[in-house]
Amino acid sequence: MYFKVSKKEFYNALSVAARAISTFSPLPAFSGVKIEATMDCLILTGSDSDISIQTKLKKSEHCVLEIHDMGSIVIEAKYILEIVRKIDADEIEFEMLDGSLTKISGNTAEFRINGMRASEYPAIDFSKPNECFNVSEDILKKIILQTSFATSDKETRPVLTGVNFQCKEHQLHCVATDSYRLAKKTVEIEESLNFNITIPAKSLQEVVKTLEGEGDVEIAVNDKKAQFIIHDTIVQTRLIDGVYPETSRLIPLQFDYELTIDAHDLLNAIDRASFIKNDGVSVIKFNLSEQECVLSSKSVEVGSSTEVLSSASFSGNALEINCNGRYVFDAIKALSGSLVKFSLCGEMKPFIIQSVDDDSVLQLVLPVRTYA
């Protein structure tokens, strides 16, 4: 194998593939990036067996690529990234000398590094599943950022560590919950599909990092894997086994109270009150009435805080409700728009937070019981 390539584009492609590599790799070969030189492109692959990323580098007006000899090699990710980053040259040469010894050179610098034979790298099936649909990069980014924060970080119920993607004909419902809060995003798609899968939140975070900001993403799924095809890059992830809980029955449909407030003002008020914690949790209390809306927090050890929410508008009878401040803060932050609406049923019933301008995303938070 022997090729010459633009350093900047090669380093960027290596960085994308290397994001799938785990520090604690289950197999020695998975600590490396597989570099394959074909007739017309370089194919770079990284994986940790749960998530795999394959990206192609082709000759273009921005990228010099001359492939003189085809072949493939696996090189430890941390070494190849460091070498390519530090070579002070616009173009680098990559040559496999003997077996797995590889020479990487640019200007006056030359490195010889031991790699692994490509035959030692586990075979990864990048064939495209049958169920395919397209969404814009912007919409996919919103889906992930507005839901994945609500997944569980505990492995006791693995299915809750992922986002559930359920498609019914032209509607895609994306739901995340850790059983104390819930985030749901609904989008319309052109294709009529039916599937119900749960994708690990960790994999979706890697998808967000790979998005380039414009264009469409092709998403292909089956009952074993999901693929996100972003230009010349494929991000492929395993799915989480298990039946996702039926969350639609948790979402109230009728409400007795409604609070509308400026999102920025409420975020700042929660932030000011959040240093007061009980057992490491910031519990905030809303005292709501049509005359005045007050946000307060208190702790026997620390003290208390009280703030009148001047931009709030409330309809309904007077209501007191306690909740986890961080959950409310995260929910509001995930919404777009300057005004948010709280729809409430009672002091110990789940309440919904939505943007006044966008009803495609819904955040649900469970109140907490306090004995103070």
Describe the secondary structure blueprint for this structure.
Blueprint: E1 2-6, H1 7-18, E2 32-37, E3 41-47, E4 51-58, E5 65-69, E6 71-76, H2 77-86, E7 91-98, E8 101-106, E9 109-114, E10 116-117, E11 131-136, H3 137-147, E12 162-177, E13 181-200, H4 201-210, E14 216-221, E15 225-230, E16 233-238, E17 257-262, H5 263-273, E18 283-288, E19 293-299, E20 303-308, E21 313-315, E22 319-324, H6 325-334, E23 339-344, E24 351-355, E25 358-365
Antiparallel strand pairs: 1-5, 1-7, 2-3, 2-6, 3-4, 4-16, 6-10, 7-8, 8-9, 11-14, 12-13, 13-25, 14-15, 15-16, 17-21, 17-23, 18-19, 18-22, 19-20, 23-24, 24-25
Helix pairs in contact: 1-2, 3-4, 5-6
Tell me what you see in this structure.
This protein has 372 residues and is of the alpha+beta class. The chain folds into 3 domains: 2-120, Roll (DNA Polymerase III, Chain A, domain 2), CATH 3.10.150.10; 131-248, DNA Polymerase III, subunit A, domain 2 (DNA Polymerase III, Chain A, domain 2, Roll), CATH 3.10.150.10; 251-365, Proliferating Cell Nuclear Antigen, CATH 3.70.10. The protein has helices at 7-18, 77-86, 137-147, 201-210, 263-273, 325-334, and strands spanning 2-6, 32-37, 41-47, 51-58, 65-69, 71-76, 91-98, 101-106, 109-114, 116-117, 131-136, 162-177, 181-200, 216-221, 225-230, 233-238, 257-262, 283-288, 293-299, 303-308, 313-315, 319-324, 339-344, 351-355, 358-365. Helix 3 packs antiparallel against helix 4 and helix 5 (263-273) packs antiparallel against helix 6. The termini are far apart.
